[in-house]
């Protein structure tokens, strides 16, 4: 009877270890393999690991999913920045008050200002004083009247010299 109890306990121990292996080790191995593929740029997080019911494994899956989403967002931001900086024209993004939010390197080079200085100014401040009312009126037409406007104006560079520019303006959500 002692031998039978030992055999039964051994069988139970083997079954429990197999269950633990299936429940814990296999999902973690799949997550690890997937994380390695993602780190090598070979895969996106679209493989189903399955629900394990183990809180820690589910948290690990959730963390991996968040990291992948963050990486995808970073790639999209990198592509946007590459396009933004790759344009041969000056590009300004400003809020509804005309205060600059973002501008590209071409704008900095053509106007001769540092990024810090321009980010503290508004588009209106770059326009010669005599033309500011016309610019205010032009910007006031965007969206209520038209979605997009094209116009010419002059901007002042860092030395106060006037630069003729052609502008294409429209509202965006940034």
Structure in words:
The chain is an alpha+beta fold and 174 residues long. The protein contains six helices and four strands; from the N terminus they run H-H-E-E-H-H-H-H-E-E. Helix 1 runs parallel beside helix 2. The longest helix is centred in the N-terminal third of the chain and has 38 residues, at 2-39. The chain is rod-shaped, with a radius of gyration of 30 Å. The model has no long low-confidence stretch (mean pLDDT 84).
What keyword list fits this structure?
alpha+beta; two-stranded antiparallel sheet; 14% strand; 6 helices; single chain; two-stranded antiparallel ribbon
Give the helices and strands, then pairings:
Elements: H1 2-39, H2 55-86, E1 92-94, E2 100-103, H3 105-111, H4 115-119, H5 123-126, H6 132-140, E3 148-156, E4 162-170
Antiparallel strand pairs: 1-2, 3-4
Query: Which percent range fits the helix content?
Result: 40-55%
Which structural class do you get from the secondary structure elements? alpha+beta
DSSP summary: helix tally: 6
Order of helices and strands: HHEEHHHHEE
Summarize the entry for a quick read.
The chain has helices spanning 2-39, 55-86, 105-111, 115-119, 123-126, 132-140, and strands spanning 92-94, 100-103, 148-156, 162-170.
């Amino acid at each position: 009877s002692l031998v039978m109890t030992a055999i039964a306990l051994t069988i139970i121990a083997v079954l429990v270890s197999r269950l633990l292996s299936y429940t814990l080790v296999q999902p973690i191995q799949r997550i690890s393999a997937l994380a390695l593929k993602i780190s090598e740029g070979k895969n996106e997080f679209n493989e189903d690991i399955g629900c394990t019911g183990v809180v820690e494994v589910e948290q690990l899956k959730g963390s991996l999913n968040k990291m992948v989403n963050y990486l995808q967002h970073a790639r999209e931001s990198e592509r946007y920045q590459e396009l933004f900086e790759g344009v041969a024209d000056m590009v300004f993004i400003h809020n509804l008050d005309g205060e600059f939010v973002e501008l590209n390197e071409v704008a900095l080079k053509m106007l001769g200002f540092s990024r810090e200085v321009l980010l503290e100014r508004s588009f209106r401040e770059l326009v010669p004083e005599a033309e500011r009312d016309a610019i205010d009126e032009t910007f006031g037409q965007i969206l209520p009247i038209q979605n997009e406007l094209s116009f010419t104006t002059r901007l002042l560079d860092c030395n106060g010299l006037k630069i003729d520019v052609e502008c294409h303006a429209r509202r965006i959500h940034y």
